[in-house]
Amino acid sequence: KPSREGAGVVLDAGIDKISITWKLSSTGSKKEAEFKTIKVKLCYAPPSQVDRPWRKTHDELFKDKTCPHKIVARPYDKTTQSIDWILERDIPTGTYFVRAYAVDEHDHEVAFGQSTNEAKTTSLFSVQAISGRHKSLDIASVCFSVFSVLALLVFFVNEKRKAKIEQSK
Amino acid sequence: MGDPTGEPGSSMHGVTGREQSFAFSVASPIVHTDKTAKFDLPVDTEHKATVFKLFSFSKPHMRTFHLSWISFSTCFVSTFAAAPLVPIIRENLNLTKQDIGNAGVASVSGSIFSRLVMGAVCDLLGPRYGCAFLVMLSAPTVFSMSFVSGAAGFITVRFMIGFCLATFVSCQYWMSTMFNSQIIGLVNGTAAGWGNMGGGITQLLMPVVYEIIRRAGASAFTAWRIAFFVPGWLHIIMGILVLTLGQDLPDGNRAALEKAGEVAKDKFGKIMWYAVTNYRTWIFVLLYGYSMGVELSTDNVIAEYFFDRFHLKLHTAGLIAACFGMANFFARPAGGWASDFSAKYFGMRGRLWTLWIIQTAGGLFCVWLGRANTLVTAVVAMVLFSLGAQAACGATFAIVPFVSRRALGIISGLTGAGGNFGSGLTQLLFFSTNQFTTEEGLTWMGVMIVGCTLPVAFIHFPQWGSMFLPPSKDPVKSTEEHYYASEWTEQEKQKNMHQGSLRFAENAKSEGGRRVRSAATPPDSTPNNV
């Protein structure tokens, strides 16, 4: 669950947190004996996958690009686990949900659970990325640009003057 | 092969042992060395170098070569600097596939216009100013990546940076003023090829610079912006070097020579007319769109393609993508050399066939690249495709200097612009929409290359022939002088404005091929430098 609730709330990367809680579902799982580690990941919801083939969902897990952002990986124990996670600064702007994969000792995914429904339409939350811009960067950029133009003009004017002097000789 | 009249200089080729190899120097009695000129390299009657010494910096010829290709390469670095960083940039700016495709189109579109203008600038003001102005005035566009916050800004900045690719025109033009026509294929091919290498260098350079900045503590979305400062600084440095160390012509700078009355000032309108009414110009515009154009398109899409399709890391994809652009180091000069070599035996007809063969082969390898399903076959196909496309570029510009003497600048500009137009078109058609996957796009691009290369067959020179037709039998029309002098009106000829073209025609006789060389006795009108 996000730290702030409400429709239309957008979380800021690098600032806001999400709290995630996971446990084995009440219906149990046939493969519970194989669970070794639980990997919790941040996943793109369908609106953030439109027109972006590099985030496409594939049935084959190793090709699947839905959940690229790792949140935490913890060894499996049967108790309820939770974590408060600050959204990292390289999370892009988009709509997300959370998924927890259970992996066995060979690092194969055997089961998973997610914070949204099968169609990935409920309980989604939005994140706004950092812009990556900085004032100091902007200023440096302007300074170097001005230097380039000025240096050119100085050279040009200088040479024209020298050519005139040559011609009048 | 002794020279009957013992013209000083012509029998000296190869004797000193300093000339590197045959194709690097002019060894023909048709080209008369001017021994009165005081240059480090042997020169012809126009004071253009007849020898290409790669590792020398001798003034003015080789120095021009190095300044020219390095500044051109810098522009390639900055134009394609965004491409290997797209996987990061697309997350920062929330780009869609269409945005990325449009930015790619934008990056090559700006220079369609600027290359045309640059052609005129070179004809009127000289290549040195053209190069320096462009490089230094485009530095601010590179720095302005730090301000970009969305798709619109990204597309706009890539469009503006793309203007600097017009340095291609100043580079080729500058080479044509400094080197004799018999080696111009190799020289232009090398200068442009090494310049184009920048498109490969950037695929390696930018991810590395980005990584270093990240490790120094910056977050991902800031690090890529800082990385753009590196190409920006390169622009400034190269601009200053060109201004301080370069000169327009072997004998000096244009402004000084014009004022001294040695170089005639020409009219833009006239030059434009002769460029535009020569049908060969337009065939080359199309052809170059499918050698250089597809090279540029590939520079923009290939890193992301390998990253996404074969699940590679960013710097691995960058490394493979770099191989595509870096093949220019020898591929383009090889194309120029192949053209010069075939001209030795078959003259201009050899050059035309060489161009067609190489460019078509490139197209077929591009089809293979699109259909390759494993990483290894994809890399092999990509490398072969790069060799074909880039050698074709070299072979194209081995012929362009012969299309016109008076309007060389504009024609070079138009051809260069055609390259960019082809690039924008192929990116728009095949890589910006959801209609084709990238691999399908590559396949269709290959098919289009093969189709658009067929018009080479229509290029015909009355004095030299074409792919399927021999030269004209008419005794007047079949001379080089007639072809090049026909660009001047009678009034202009009376004012002797066409002298430069006549000198060029004399030096261009070697394009007749073996029959011309074996019949060679220097004309009696040759000045004997006693």
From TrEMBL, chain A:
Keywords: Membrane, Transmembrane, Transmembrane helix. The chain crosses the membrane at residues 139-157. Coiled coil: none annotated. InterPro entries: Transptr_NO3_Nar2 (IPR016605). The keyword Transit peptide does not apply. Pfam families: NAR2. This is High-affinity nitrate transporter 3.1-like. The gene is LOC104728756.
Automatic annotation (TrEMBL), chain B:
The chain crosses the membrane at residues 67-88, 129-148, 154-174, 186-206, 226-245, 271-290, 310-331, 352-370, 376-400, 407-430, 442-461. It is a multi-pass membrane protein. Coiled coil: none annotated. Belongs to the major facilitator superfamily. Nitrate/nitrite porter (TC 2.A.1.8) family. PANTHER family: HIGH-AFFINITY NITRATE TRANSPORTER 2.3 (PTHR23515). The lineage of its organism: Eukaryota, Viridiplantae, Streptophyta, Embryophyta, Tracheophyta. Residues 487-530 are annotated as: Disordered. Gene3D superfamilies: MFS general substrate transporter like domains (1.20.1250.20). Its main location: membrane. CDD domains: MFS_NRT2_like (cd17341). Keywords: Membrane, Transmembrane, Transmembrane helix. It comes from Camelina sativa (False flax). SUPFAM superfamilies: MFS general substrate transporter. It comes from the Eukaryota. This is High-affinity nitrate transporter 2.1-like. It holds the Pfam family MFS_1.
